[in-house]
Amino acid sequence: MGFYLVINWKRWIRTALYTGIIFVGAVGSFAQGIATVRGKVASVTNQVLIVSTASGDVQALLTDKTVIRTEVPVDLSQISTGMYLGTTATKQPDGTFLASEVHIFSEDQRGTGEGHRPLGSDPQSGATMTNANVERVEDVAVKDIKGRLLNLKYQGGEVKVLVPPKIPIVKRVIADRTALVNGSEVSLQTAGTSGGLPAAVQITVRAAGR
Q1: How many Å apart are CA 156 and CA 101, to the nearest integer?
Q2: Pair 90, 166 in one domain
Q3: Strand partners, 171
Q4: Which residues of the chain have pLDDT under 70?
Q5: Are 78 and 52 within one domain?
Q6: C-beta pairs of 137-146 under 8 Å, 24+ apart in sequence
Q7: How far apart are CA 204 and CA 210, in angstroms?
Q8: Contact between 169 and 106 (Cβ < 8 Å)
Q9: What are the helix (H) ranges across the chain?
Q10: Phi, psi (5° rounding) for residue 151?
Q11: CB atoms near residue 172 (< 10 Å)
Q12: Is residue 52 part of a domain?
């Protein structure tokens, strides 16, 4: 099958996430050697994963270094201090941010993409993406919204984010290949190779509706 280059894949992933780059579609979008696609699992045969995207099928080689995670829906009350999470939010007149989505990273992802920046997929929208540690959690009521006010701290700054009820909140947990069920929606990151199929570096099985 050829030699599969997976050296420094963790650094490449963090670089892509930190700059806010989001890739959608088939292989061909790269950041520091990493290609990211989103689609549905078409099949898993032996060591080969096939993902169907709007641009066509993408194949990747599953190796012993491939990290697989699933997203598990969690309740707002489960957000607690010490968690490392990412949130999409919009700045409010009082300087706080109103979250529209929250994903709690698995512990092995702590520090991934740390920072506060415009949303990479839509930088003109005014929405932001913050990956940071939860320093404090308060139950609050702002106007007609009852939620949790998170004090998020990252290297170089901190922000306050109000998380209202009934927005998507998921936690990523380590899984195995049994999670790669045909039809499940996934985000797949691959590393380029010197020949043959690209190697699957990370696979996130997305929660329904995400």
Answers
A1: 23
A2: yes
A3: 72, 104
A4: 1-32, 194-195, 209-210
A5: no
A6: 137/79, 137/80, 137/81, 142/96
A7: 11
A8: no
A9: 9-18
A10: -95, 110
A11: 22
A12: yes
Domain count, the chain: 2
Domain enclosing residue 200, as ranges: 9-70+174-205
Q: What angle do CA 27, 192, 13 make, to 5 degrees?
A: 85
In the chain, the amino acid numbered 58 is V
Would 47 be classed as within a structural domain? yes
- pTM, rounded to two decimals: 0.76
3-state secondary structure of 108: helix
Q: Are 121 and 41 members of one domain?
A: no
The reply to whether 83 falls in a domain is: yes
CA distance 190 to 111: 20
pLDDT of residue 25: 33
Q: How far apart are the first and last CA of the chain?
A: 34
- The model's pLDDT over 47-66, given as tens digits with 9 standing for 90+, comes to 999 999 999 999 999 999 99
- Distance of alpha carbon 25 from its chain centroid, rounded? 16
143: left (phi over 0), alpha (psi -120 to 50) or beta: left
Task: State how far the Cα of 166 lies from the Cα of 132, in Å rounded to an integer.
Answer: 22
In this structure, are 156 and 89 located in the same domain? Answer: yes
Same domain, 19 and 48: yes
What is the C-alpha to C-alpha distance for residues 116 and 200, in angstroms, rounded to an integer?
28
Q: How far apart are CA 177 and CA 169, in angstroms?
A: 23
